[in-house]
Amino acid sequence: MSLSLDSTVKLNNGVEMPWFGLGVYKVEDGKEVHTSVQSALQNGYRAIDTASFYQNEEGVGQAIKASGVPRDDIFVTTKVWNDEQGYESTLEAFENSRKKLGLDVIDLYLIHWPIKGKFKDTWRAMEKLYNDGKVRAIGVSNFKVHHLEELLADATVKPVINQIELHPRLTQEDVREFCQKNEILVEAWSPLMRGKVFDDPVIESLSKKYNKSPAQIILRWDLQSNIVTIPKSVHEERIKQNADIFDFELSQEDIEQIDALNRDERVGPDPDNMS
Ligand code: NDP
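Above: inputs. Below: predicted complex with NDP.
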């Protein structure tokens, strides 16, 4: 698989999405988000992952406009937050996000968490937004296999993606297998486990072997495992470093070594406990 930073993957509805992008969770609206989105775009990133919950959609939108990169070359994801779920409230939340981002059409809109008793109504609203052409693709986040089964039972539009916590300590084999069978792409959030896995001996030894940083080893592992990634950084050097993963290849054996680091350990909440 020979890829570069602007390489895309075809989603199950035919829309092309970059394999790699910038996450902006916990990046402050205003100067901080402006600077990180700007430096990502200047360094060749073409996808940005935000959410209404992050409260920085305005800054993301302004940075995109100021970047000079044509709108159509940038893939923007945002998400409907838990207290916005339900049919009407999702339609309203979408309009708010769209206005804040200053975009006519959002590339990908996700249900942020599978809120019990709500997410199916939310999905109906997402289907309407999609059918009305306001969003190019719709998907979910933090869905376990049982959530996906419940959703797919009545969905008229299949989610294109499931964005889940995924890193060497949480490899999510069951969700990945289900998604693959159902043509739903997997996207990793907290791909770097927020820095908590860099000192693992296997990651450290691979870092020496390939002369790449621990972050680059992990992000390359995602790429070679067909997983979309959106590492977050507010530092230009790291933004550049994280994207510099297209000039080496992990051996199959080394990929399996990383797979074996799984401990089902989360840095975020268990989706079954999110209310
Ligand atoms: P990440 O795993 O991307 O880790 C980010 C942390 O690692 C930051 O503290 C950053 O610091 C640091 N870091 C980044 N690159 C490097 C590097 N090369 N070397 C050393 N440290 C580095 O965590 P996130 O939780 O931010 O996940 C990524 C994105 O996923 C989010 O920003 C968000 O868009 C999305 N997300 C989605 C969720 C969901 O429920 N759908 C939940 C959580 C996240 P610094 O910024 O100081 O460089």
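The pocket of NDP is lined by residues 23-25, 49, 112, 141-142, 163, 189-195, 213, 215, 230-235, 238, 241-242, 268 (CB under 6 Å).
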